[in-house]
TrEMBL record:
It holds the Pfam family SbcC_Walker_B. Belongs to the SMC family. SbcC subfamily. InterPro entries: P-loop_NTPase, Rad50/SbcC_AAA. This is Nuclease SbcCD subunit C. Residues 8-182 form the Rad50/SbcC-type AAA domain. Keywords: Coiled coil. It comes from the Bacteria. It comes from Actinotalea lenta. The keyword Coiled coil applies. Residues 592-636 form a coiled coil. Residues 265-288 are annotated as: Disordered. Heterodimer of SbcC and SbcD. Gene3D superfamilies: P-loop containing nucleotide triphosphate hydrolases.
Length: 1008
């Protein structure tokens, strides 16, 4: 993985936009990120990790710090990173979530986090957008880089606190990282696949054995009682023989059992068929005797029925006579009934005519008179025509008369409404004349409010500036107190550092004196010195035993380094606080009380301007509403005035028409109180004449119909030869006639049925009676034969079913044995290969994945030692440990120790000092890059970024480390060093310079 270019804006301490071209910066293979503590060096590493993974480099740190507090509110916070991997060239642009001003109104809203990923053909090409979804981009970047965030900060970007993580990690953590870096997960997957295949094969064999056991149990269940009995002279039951025998022998024994059961079933079937033949013969004889007895019983029953029918013959003859007479009456009854109904109709018509004539008025009866019906009908028709003609002439007058009252009321209401409407129009015209003056007053008020509202923007600016000054003024006092404490702490740390240097000097002097004294004590005149080789010893050092135990130089050096680090941190803290206090004083421009008064005054000005602004909007709405109301009301008044004039014209026309219609109605009444009363009188007279005429016509028709019905009745009786009184006597109800017919038909059917049955051939030549004991003995013989046949058939069926079940079970057992043999044959090579890969079953002590990864780890340790030997002057060497990596596993080989060749003791890496930990971890990181670059299919580590750690090195070690880093350009890799150590500034010309501005923000400059 190689960094190509990065742009960022409004990020951390950087309010502006900056671009870093890593290809140009790292052309020499080594560059420096330098600047004061807290200026933003680590922010660039956070930017790289955030662009790739959406999180900053340090674990547990929040992404909220990415938004620059110094940037303008509308500035976008983003990181745009171009990088190259073995999968190609990519560009990712990511923005964190941060507050921004609302586009409408006041206040802020949250700008959501976003990301976009492109695949590029060149760094300056636009590229193809792969995705803009958080989850998709995260998965794709992890795929093309080959590392997750935790692994990335241990191998590529090494931030503060994470640099030595790989050195101090436990073996299982190293395993996860190295698998990703070297791409050896495939061996783990192969090992896991072989383990699953072994488990599947073992399970298949076990399942096949279980199937064989179930088939044996199925066979024992199929043979029934035979399973519990000894077999072939053996004292052991058949079930135990089958269960204990090997699968192949059990299958052979099952075949023998099947043959024996088949023979037993065949013999039982032959015996059952013989018993069935005997039962059939007994059934034939029994059925013959039972049929004879049934025919004798049927003959006797028919004879009894015939005797009963002979006794019923007189009654049958009487019913026949009654039915024939009733049939004659039914034929003439319609004419008798018709004459009766016609007489009733004639009588009712005469009564109705009498009532209609009596209901007529005396004058109508006088005009019509009495006499011949035709004359009376003619007179009534004349009266009806007179009444109809008169009412037709009165129809218009009656209609006009009915509406006269409503028309008079409507006319009066119209005149009254017109008078009121004219008054309303006059009042509205007077009100409209007052509105223009009111509008002029509102316009004057709006202009005044507009002038007051124009001061809102200046007031807001003044309020923001006053607020900034107030915040700065309030922060001066606590920062001053912190500065005092920090200065005191720096003085104390300076004293501690001085004491530590003195102690280190004393320890070195004591050690040198002790070594010189020991060597002088060993000198012998005439023998060469072990140091210089001279045989003369003019001034040997004296060996003075110290009065107290000498100080350990290594412990003194560690104490000095710790004291120096503490001093550096204290001095840095003092510088930061001094700069902060100066910046706050400059920003405050006065004391806190003045700033508070300025804020209060600005707040009042802003409130008044906002109130004026709201008043402008309110007055504008009132003026607009007033203008619209004035136009609408003027139009409405004009429309109402026109409508009033038109209504008055219509009212006068209606008054003239009303006078004409009143005269017409008066003429039509012809002296009557009203035209309607005259019309109602003629309507009443016409109704009386109509009802009288209709009743008379009905009476005439009913009389004619009765005469005709009476004549037709007499003719029908004469044709039937029956008198009227006989017909009335012999007529029967319909139900009784049907009952007579039913009884006659029943007698005839029963007589024909019984006579035909007695003459049937099967009832001829029968004995007078049948002996019951003979039939009983035949039944007993049949029952015994059927019992023997059924018992034999059941036994044969049981044996046949048992033989069939045994045949199926034997075939299933043979198939199961065959499958077991096949599974065992297939499982053997799989189990052997899995045992080798997983180091189980005595196949070895290392798993396949551990062995392969151990070889890569050995290469890594060797590559790290190649640099570590030179940097540590041969003192330290990394070695693999035989420590087991986890409880109850066979993983060995990824544990690591540091051998100190001066003491010959192997140490845990966690016991190294800060400087030792730094350069040992650096050697591991560079060795990892060497090995991965040489591997095919692994992760490419083309860029390394190292944050801090160089301050823990002495000058000599630092020079060796720089020389080692400078040689990396030969391998095509680039190393970025983040530090503020002065020696590095002079040794590394390519750099990113980060400088803090007076306002607390930072800016960067790339020098390549």
């Amino acid at each position: 993985m190689r960094l190509v270019r990065m742009s960022l804006g409004a990020l951390g301490p950087f309010p502006g936009e900056h671009t870093v071209d890593f290809d140009e910066l790292g052309a020499s293979g080594l560059f420096l990120l330098e600047g004061a503590t807290g200026a933003g060096k680590s922010t660039l590493i956070d930017a790289v990790v955030f662009a790739l993974y959406g999180k900053v480099a340090s674990a547990g740190a929040s992404e909220d710090r990415l938004r620059s507090a110094h940037a303008p509110a509308a500035a976008e916070t983003y990181v745009d990173l171009t990088f190259a991997t073995g999968a190609g060239l990519f560009r990712v642009r990511r923005t964190p979530a941060y507050p921004r001003p609302k586009q409408r109104g006041s206040g802020t809203t949250t700008q959501p986090a976003g990301v976009r990923l492109w695949r590029l053909t060149s760094p300056d090409a636009p590229g193809d957008l792969l995705s803009s979804r958080m989850d998709e981009v995260g998965l794709e970047i992890q795929r093309v880089v080959g590392l997750d965030r935790a692994q990335f900060v241990q191998t590529v970007v090494l931030p503060q606190g994470e640099f030595a993580a790989f050195l101090r990690a436990d073996p299982e953590q190293r395993r996860s990282l190295l698998q990703k870096v070297f791409g050896t997960e495939v061996f783990d997957r192969v090992q896991q696949r072989l383990e699953r295949m072994r488990a599947d094969a073992t399970r298949a064999v076990t399942e096949a054995e279980q199937v064989v056991a179930r088939r044996v149990a199925q066979l024992c269940g199929a043979v029934g009682d035979l399973a519990a009995a000894p077999f072939d002279g053996s004292e052991v039951p058949l079930s135990e023989l089958l269960a204990s025998a090997p699968p192949a022998e059990a299958a052979a024994l099952a075949g023998t059992v099947l043959d024996r059961l088949s023979q037993q079933a065949h013999r039982a079937q032959e015996q059952a068929e013989e018993a069935a033949t005997q039962a059939a013969t007994a059934r034939t004889e029994h059925d013959r005797l039972r049929e004879v007895a049934a025919r004798v019983a049927r003959r006797d029953a028919l004879r009894r029925e015939w005797t009963a029918l002979e006794a019923e013959t007189p009654s049958h003859t009487e019913r026949s006579v009654r039915w024939e007479a009733a049939q004659v009456v039914e034929r003439v009854w319609p004419w008798i009934e018709g004459e009766r109904r016609a007489g009733e109709a004639m009588s009712g018509a005469a009564d109705e005519h009498a009532r209609a004539r009596a209901a007529a008025s005396p004058d109508l009866r006088a005009v019509v008179g009495e006499g011949d019906p035709d004359v009376v009908l003619k007179a009534l028709d004349g009266e009806l025509e007179l009444c109809a003609a008169t009412r037709e002439r009165l129809k218009r007058a009656v209609a006009l008369e009915d509406g006269l009252a409503a028309r008079r009321d409507d006319l009066a209401a119209r005149r009254e409404s017109a008078l009121a409407a004219r008054g309303t129009v006059q009042r509205e015209r007077e009100e409209l004349a007052e509105l223009p003056g009111r509008r002029a007053g509102l316009v004057t008020q709006r202009d005044g409010a507009r002038a007051a509202a124009s001061g809102l923007a200046p007031a807001q600016v003044e309020l923001a500036q006053a607020g900034t000054r107030l915040v700065a003024a309030r922060e001066i006092a606590p920062l001053t107190e912190q500065l005092d404490v920090a200065e005191q702490s720096a003085l104390a740390r300076e004293e501690d550092a001085r004491h530590a240097v003195d102690a280190l000097a004393r320890a070195h002097a004591a050690r040198i004196a002790g070594i010189a004294g020991e060597l002088a004590a060993q000198l012998v005149p005439g023998r060469p010195c072990a140091v210089c080789g001279s045989t003369e010893h003019p001034a040997p050092a004296s060996h003075v035993r110290p009065t107290r135990a000498p100080e350990d130089p290594e412990l003194a050096e560690a104490a000095r380094a710790a004291a120096q680090d503490a001093l550096q941190q204290a001095v840095t803290q003092v510088e930061v606080l001094r700069a902060a206090v100066a910046a706050r004083r400059e920003a405050a421009g006065g004391d806190a009380e003045q700033a508070e008064r300025a804020v209060a005054a600005a707040q009042v000005a802003v409130s008044e301007a906002r109130a004026a602004q709201d008043r402008v909007a309110e007055l504008s709405r009132e003026i607009e509403t007033l203008d619209q109301d004035l136009a609408d009301r003027r139009a409405a008044v004009a429309d109402r005035a026109s409508a009033i004039a038109l209504d008055e014209e219509r009212t006068e026309h209606l008054a003239a028409r009303l006078a004409e219609d009143e005269l017409e109605v008066l003429a039509a009444a012809d002296g009557a109180p009203s035209a309607r009363l005259r019309d109602e009188e003629f309507a009443r007279r016409a109704g009386e004449a109509r009802r009288w005429s209709a009743a008379l016509r009905v009476l005439v028709d009913a009389t004619d119909h009765h005469r005709t019905a009476e004549r037709e009745r007499d003719e029908a009786l004469a044709a039937a030869g029956v008198a009227l009184h006989d017909a009335l006597r012999d007529r029967l109800p319909a139900g009784e006639i049907a009952a007579l017919r039913h009884e006659l038909d029943r007698y005839d059917r029963e007589r024909a049925r019984v006579g035909a049955a007695l003459e049937a051939p099967e009832l001829a030549d029968l004995p007078d009676a049948v002996d019951g004991t003979v039939l009983a003995r035949a039944q007993e013989a049949l029952d015994a034969a059927q019992h023997r046949a059924e018992a034999g058939q059941r036994e044969a069926a049981v044996l046949a079913d048992r033989a069939d079940a045994t045949r199926t079970a034997t075939a299933d057992l043979a198939s199961a044995v065959t499958e077991l043999d096949a599974q065992r044959a297939a499982a053997a090579p799989v189990v052997r290969m899995a045992n080798v890969a997983t180091a189980s079953g005595g196949a070895g002590t290392l798993t396949l994945a551990t062995y392969v990864l151990g070889q890569r780890f050995e290469d890594l340790v060797a590559a790290a030692n190649a640099r570590l030997t030179g940097i540590s002057d041969g003192r330290y060497e990394l070695v693999r440990s035989a420590e087991r990596e986890a409880v109850r596993t066979r993983r060995l080989g990824l544990a690591m120790q540091v051998v100190d060749h001066r003491t010959g003791v192997a140490r845990d890496p966690r016991t190294l000092s800060g400087g030792e930990t730094f350069y040992v971890s650096l050697c591991l990181a560079l060795g990892l890059a060497d090995v991965v670059t040489a591997e095919a299919g692994g992760v490419e580590l083309g860029t390394l970024l190292i944050d801090e750690g160089f301050g823990a090195l002495d000058a000599e070690t630092l020079e060796v480390v720089l020389a080692e880093l400078s040689r990396l350009r030969d391998g095509g890799r680039v190393v970025g060093v983040v530090s503020h150590v002065e020696t590095l500034k002079t040794a590394i010309p390519e750099r990113i310079e980060i400088r803090r501005r007076p306002d607390g923000a930072s800016t960067l400059t790339v020098r390549a």
